[in-house]
């Protein structure tokens, strides 16, 4: 097709055509036995470029193209370094994007985590990151189940499936040997991995505790211990944030951690704990964290986005563009 004809097309029609051609290219790549790793790295780089300009339609196209290529031949890719780079590099698309779109993550199965972890020269960072993503990549499917429970249109089988998946995810955690001995992190990469782990555990714990309000008779296993862990995780995240602000060093996942922390603190408020000042502080910090989103509205967007994690409507989430 000539460039002049492409320029004369309406934007929507042009995007549709571009996505169609991209899909055809991905199918051709999948049918080839000679897909080279540099090609995947090139597409991954395009994703990063669009991410910094916040071009969500382009991000979706690149990320889901990459995911399609990897999912078409997991035996070939799952232990490769490029697979890990794509999984972790496109994680907003594979977690928040999939939650918004109402579909499971392409990396929810544990086969994607059967790669060799390097020697823990980074004080457990690799292990923390692996365990965190084993949890996080399973969350989108749980959100699908929870949405059905919240609608009230579920049967006994649906309830068993939801509880079973929630408990399997809840059981994923690090061994004490890999837990940091101190929250004063000299390495920003280790701090990032630790915050990822806190985000993952806070998300699944807060979702399990929320299930008690939607499933009559359901009680989270070891409920008192889980409630204590939730409070400890919130305190650990806040301590890490304080350290970051003092040093003016900000890890990648701080923005994403806001939502499960906010959801957890709201639950603490409903349990009668005096957390009003903390809630106000989180709402204020969210305006700074998401200043790149001109439409971000603080409290209402924090509430609606966390509600999407709890099976709420996608259109009110800040990730609504991923749902289209």
What would your notes on this structure say?
- This protein is an all-alpha fold.
- It is 67% helix and 0% strand.
- It has 16 helices and no strands.
- The protein is globular, with a radius of gyration of 20 Å.
- Residues 1-12 have low confidence and may be disordered.
H-E string: HHHHHHHHHHHHHHHH
Number of strands: 0
- Termini separation (Å)? 27 Å
| Shape category | globular
Average pLDDT, all residues? 82
Radius of gyration: 20 Å
Q: In the residues, how many domains can be counted? A: 2
Q: In what range is the share of β-strand residues?
A: under 5%
Helix/strand/pairing class, anyone? mainly alpha
Low-confidence stretches: 1-12
Draw up the topology in text.
Elements: H1 3-8, H2 11-31, H3 37-52, H4 56-72, H5 74-77, H6 81-89, H7 91-94, H8 96-101, H9 125-136, H10 139-151, H11 156-170, H12 188-214, H13 223-247, H14 254-270, H15 276-289, H16 299-309
Helix pairs in contact: 2-4, 3-4, 3-6, 9-12, 10-11, 10-12, 11-12, 12-13, 12-14, 13-14, 14-15, 14-16
Any key phrases for this structure?
single chain, 324 residues, mainly alpha, 16 helices, globular
Brief characterization of the structure:
This protein has 324 residues and is mainly alpha-helical. It is 67% helix and 0% strand. α3 (37-52) packs antiparallel against α4 (56-72) and α11 runs antiparallel to α12.
């Amino acid at each position: 097709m000539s460039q002049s004809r492409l320029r004369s097309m309406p934007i929507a029609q042009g995007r549709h055509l571009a996505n169609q051609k991209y899909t055809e290219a991905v199918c051709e790549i999948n049918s080839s036995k000679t897909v080279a790793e540099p090609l995947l790295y090139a597409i991954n780089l395009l994703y990063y470029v669009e991410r910094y300009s916040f071009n969500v339609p382009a991000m979706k196209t690149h990320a889901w193209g990459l995911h399609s290529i990897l999912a078409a031949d997991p035996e070939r890719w799952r232990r490769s370094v490029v697979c890990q780079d794509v999984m972790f590099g496109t994680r907003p698309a594979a977690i928040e994007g999939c939650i918004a779109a109402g579909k499971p993550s392409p990396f929810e199965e544990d086969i994607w985590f059967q790669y060799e972890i390097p020697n823990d020269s980074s004080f457990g960072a690799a292990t923390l990151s692996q365990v965190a993503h084993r949890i996080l990549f399973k969350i989108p499917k749980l959100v699908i189940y929870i949405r059905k429970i919240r609608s009230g249109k579920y049967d006994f089988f649906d309830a068993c499936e939801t509880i079973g998946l929630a408990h399997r995810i809840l059981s994923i955690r690090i061994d004490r040997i890999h837990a940091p001995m101190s929250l004063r992190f000299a390495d920003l990469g280790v701090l990032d991995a630790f915050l990822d782990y806190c985000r993952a555990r806070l998300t699944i714990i807060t979702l399990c505790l929320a299930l008690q309000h939607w499933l009559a008779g359901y009680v989270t296993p070891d409920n008192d211990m889980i409630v204590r862990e939730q409070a400890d995780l919130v305190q650990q995240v806040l301590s890490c944030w304080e350290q970051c602000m003092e040093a003016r060093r900000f890890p990648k996942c701080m923005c994403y951690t806001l939502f499960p922390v906010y959801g957890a603190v709201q639950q603490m408020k409903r349990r009668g704990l005096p957390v009003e000042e903390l809630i106000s502080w989180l709402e204020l910090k969210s305006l700074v964290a998401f200043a790149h989103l001109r439409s971000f509205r603080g409290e209402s967007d924090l509430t609606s986005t966390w509600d999407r994690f709890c099976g709420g409507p996608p259109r009110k989430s800040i990730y609504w563009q991923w749902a289209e």
